[in-house]
């Protein structure tokens, strides 16, 4: 019996994060098995936190969602 199937595409581990305060963009490497809840902008030094309903700063401000979210979105039941 198969309960679910994980379709593994290439997991992207880099995301360009854009500060909502100053607009500065920087490409960062994301952890594979964790969500990043705080990120300090290297230009304006403001602390970024996830938007309400988002799991992490990469899902909120990055051009690529975090690896755990990528895996979750590719899971088919």
- Which structural category fits the helices and strands? alpha+beta
Helix content: 10-25%
Taking the sheet with the most strands, its summary is:
2 strands, antiparallel
Low-confidence stretches: none
Which helices and strands, and how do they pair?
Layout: E1 5-6, E2 14-18, E3 25-29, E4 39-40, E5 47-48, H1 57-61, H2 67-73, E6 75-76
Antiparallel strand pairs: 1-6, 2-3, 4-5
Notable characteristics:
77 residues; two-stranded antiparallel sheet; 16% helix
Descriptive account of the structure:
It is built from two helices and six strands. It has 77 residues and is α+β, with helices and mostly antiparallel strands. A two-stranded antiparallel ribbon has the order 1-6. The protein has a two-stranded antiparallel sheet with strand order 2-3. A two-stranded antiparallel sheet has the order 4-5.
In short:
The chain is an alpha+beta fold. The chain has two helices and six strands, in the order βββββααβ.
